[in-house]
Amino acid sequence: MTHYTQVGIIGAGPAGLLLAQLLHQQGIRSVVLENRSRERVESRQRAGLLEQNTVDLLRQAGATDRLDQQGLVHDGVILSYNGQRHRIDLAKLTGGSRVTIYAQTEVVKDLIQLRLNTGEPILFEAEATSIDGLDGNEPMIQYTHNGESHTLICDFVAGCDGFHGISRQTIPESLTTAYDNVYPYCWLGILAKVPPSTHELIYAYHDRGFALHSMRSPEISRLYVQCDVTDTLADWPDERIWAELQLRLGTVGWTLMEGPILEKTITPMRSFVSEPMQYGRLFLAGDSAHIVPPTGAKGLNMAVADTGQLFHALMDWYQNGSASELANYTACCMRRVWRVQEFSNFMTELLHHNPNKTPFEAQLQASRFNQLITSQMASTVVAENYVGLAAKRASEAQQSVNFHV
Ligand code: APR
Ligand code: PHB
């Protein structure tokens, strides 16, 4: 069967869902295609730290009712180096910016509910299999749903289908440049039924490896511990996880409260960027174009920032008949993407034990941490990046890419 819409959106993660809602508010029709079930999408555990820019855009989308009730607003963050703690006062150092702890899973649930309330199409277990006609005015997404093949003809395709989706692969390889960095360690993450032992997040370097204490609510803690790339969950019984967390997060006069572990997952650590983020009438947003290691908590925030940029560019087209913001999409995103890549890499290398590092590199790492403790300027740079730099609008970009419609 053939269907028509204005914007065909592949993927019901934060990027695709938010774009659909922002477009709906402006009367632009879209279809969201998601290859997983609703239950699966709503139960995937991801990170949970929102920058102010992210909260602002979710507010604009009308998606903050639960976030306002349940989100935990944090003024600061704690870094620890072998038990020596240093608090970064985010609000003070950035002129009042804060971060909000609210799980990505909950953001996704809220956006799905909003979409369902609009009555506009969101198809679960609908797999996009190819995208064609991107150099013309009527790109097409082929997809399967309920065992049948369908074609969705649209004005634009939003490739919000994550790192393993088809959108990025649709751009001819000869036109793309990919930048990739795989880290020699992973994160083992747990959800535990125990009140957080800290009011603010603790990111800890320890000679035995990194650990992070985050939270989901006053009753549920979220913790991570660095593990080896070859480790499996079988290598990490609950007792070992708590023992390592106690050691790595520990400091004099403080105890980590333990409780039943509800969930365990191992996540690889990778930095990846693919350029350009646009090919003809296909625009990538979020993980489909770039991923970061989770140390800076930027994955979701970058996906939301791309979405805001793409939304403005599409509205420039639909409301003003102008293609200039669409043409500048890659250039605008890339400035922010590379800043965030650098920060995520900095935080990752600062806080992890790299089994391959030389004694020289180990000294540099310690020296970087000392600089953070002793220099307000150094802490301010971290604070500014952590809370998120103000979004750069398309009009500020100096470069442009070829985009003909
Ligand atoms: N057809 C339809 N849907 C697809 C296809 C396909 N061929 N391929 C992938 N998808 C779906 C995935 O099932 C997923 O639900 O696209 C969605 C992409 O969502 P995310 O992976 O959440 O990506 P994004 O919206 O960019 O959000 C980025 O998610 O992975 C985290 O750390 C990341 O926080 C970041 C955020
Ligand atoms: C989380 O709460 O899951 C979280 C918080 C901060 C990070 C990564 C993950 O940097």
Q: Would you kindly provide a brief summary of this structure?
A:
The chain is built from 13 helices and 21 strands. The chain is an alpha/beta fold.
Can you tell me about this structure?
The protein has 405 residues and is of the alpha/beta class. It has a domain at 2-73 and 101-179 and 270-352: 3-Layer(bba) Sandwich (FAD/NAD(P)-binding domain). The chain contains 13 helices and 21 strands. The chain is globular. P-hydroxybenzoic acid binds at residues 47-49, 201, 214, 222, 294-295, 297. Residues 47-49, 201, 214, 222, 294-295, 297 line the site of P-hydroxybenzoic acid.
Question: How are the elements arranged and paired?
Answer:
Blueprint: E1 2-4, E2 7-10, H1 14-25, E3 30-33, H2 38-43, E4 49-50, H3 52-60, H4 65-70, E5 72-74, E6 76-81, E7 84-89, H5 90-93, E8 99-101, H6 104-118, E9 122-123, E10 126-132, E11 140-145, E12 148-153, E13 156-159, H7 167-170, E14 177-192, E15 202-205, E16 211-215, E17 221-227, H8 238-249, E18 261-275, E19 278-279, E20 282-284, E21 290-291, H9 299-320, H10 324-327, H11 329-351, H12 359-374, H13 376-387
Parallel strand pairs: 1-12, 2-3, 2-13, 3-9, 6-15, 13-20
Antiparallel strand pairs: 4-8, 5-8, 6-7, 10-11, 11-12, 14-17, 14-18, 15-16, 16-17, 18-21, 19-20
Helix pairs in contact: 1-6, 1-9, 9-11, 12-13
